[in-house]
């Protein structure tokens, strides 16, 4: 194992972004970088073990886009926010990483990341087999430092990348095993995460993403970094289901929209509240309110 280091500083300003894109595509499949060409700066420190690749990526403000969909499905990418912030978009979900937070992506995920200026991120790319079983969270999971022991992962990656001498095979194996153990520990449900708290976080997520037709129990679980069963159980204690609550909130919001605006069409209101079609919205609306959206709107504005 050796440490490879790269920097754009020795290149002409107009050539730096192209160099950075070449480095990105050489290390991460399907990745491209967009940024102001003449002001971009970046440094990369990279090393590889048997089945784990570690990197520290520092750069000025940029947008990272991965468009892939054809890569091996058994690889996982982990981003640890060391400094700065990053706004992550994947599978219709959005999350903001602050220092200490972690985002996890599968190798088949398309994503977009908006990096703040002065960004400093640690990256691990590894095979899911390293955990001796499924990783246990869905794509685009976000692990907040306030709720998960993410610092163990960040400290390990950071420490390995500071070693100038090569690690022998035995030492590399120990590092991989430690990384796997820290990852399993981090992926455990946080202590004290009672069902009421989980339900409240899920409700807040539903409220923010009512417009997203792809929002479902699996994506809620992924965003909250828990299992689908945990989300379902938290709602079941109240005699609810996540999808049932989501549908009720969408219908309530649509009802308010129908009575507060006559310029927006019923189809626009349906799609704007996460319904896949106007006909499906009409059926659901009639079941809940006993009348059609058109007749409900004719009752006049809410006073």
From TrEMBL:
Listed SUPFAM superfamilies: Homeodomain-like
Annotated ranges, domain HTH araC/xylS-type: 200-299
Pfam entry (one): HTH_18
Key words, A-Z: DNA-binding, Transcription, Transcription regulation
UniProt-listed InterPro entries: AraC-bd_2, AraC_XylS_family_regulators, Homeodomain-like_sf, HTH_AraC, HTH_AraC-typ_CS, Tscrpt_reg_AraC-type_HTH
Entry annotated with the keyword Transcription: yes
Signal peptide as annotated in the record: none
GO MF annotation terms: DNA-binding transcription factor activity; sequence-specific DNA binding
Cited SMART domains: HTH_ARAC (SM00342)
Domain of life, source organism: Bacteria
Name of the protein this chain belongs to: Helix-turn-helix domain-containing protein
Organism: Croceibacterium xixiisoli
Taxonomic classification: Bacteria, Pseudomonadati, Pseudomonadota, Alphaproteobacteria, Sphingomonadales
């Amino acid at each position: 194992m050796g440490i490879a280091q790269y920097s754009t500083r020795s290149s002409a300003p107009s050539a730096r972004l192209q160099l950075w894109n070449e480095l990105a595509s050489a290390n991460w499949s399907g990745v491209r970088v967009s940024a102001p060409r003449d002001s971009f700066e970046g440094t990369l420190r990279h090393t590889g073990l048997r089945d784990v690749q570690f990197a520290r990526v520092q750069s000025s403000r940029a947008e990272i886009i991965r468009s892939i969909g054809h890569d091996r499905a058994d690889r996982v990418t982990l981003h640890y926010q060391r400094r700065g912030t990053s706004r992550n978009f994947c599978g219709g979900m959005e999350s903001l990483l602050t220092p200490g937070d972690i985002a996890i992506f599968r190798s088949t995920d398309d994503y977009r990341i908006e990096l703040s200026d002065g960004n400093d991120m640690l990256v691990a790319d590894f095979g899911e087999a390293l955990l001796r079983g499924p990783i246990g969270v869905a794509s685009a999971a976000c692990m907040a430092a306030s709720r998960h022991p993410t610092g163990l992962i960040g400290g390990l990656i950071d420490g390995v990348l500071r070693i100038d001498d090569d690690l022998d095979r035995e030492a590399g194996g120990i590092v991989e095993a430690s990384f796997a153990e820290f990852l399993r520990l981090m992926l455990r449900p946080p202590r004290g995460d009672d069902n009421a708290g989980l339900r409240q976080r899920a409700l807040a997520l539903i409220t923010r993403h009512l417009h997203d037709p792809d929002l479902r129990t699996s994506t809620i679980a992924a965003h909250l970094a828990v299992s689908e069963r945990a989300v379902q159980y938290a709602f079941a204690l109240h005699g609810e289901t996540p999808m049932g609550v989501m549908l009720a909130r969408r219908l309530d919001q649509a009802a308010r929209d129908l009575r507060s605006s006559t310029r927006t069409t019923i189809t626009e209101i349906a799609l704007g509240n996460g319904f896949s079609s106007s006909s499906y919205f009409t059926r659901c609306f009639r079941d809940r309110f006993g009348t059609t959206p058109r007749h409900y709107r004719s009752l006049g504005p809410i006073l």
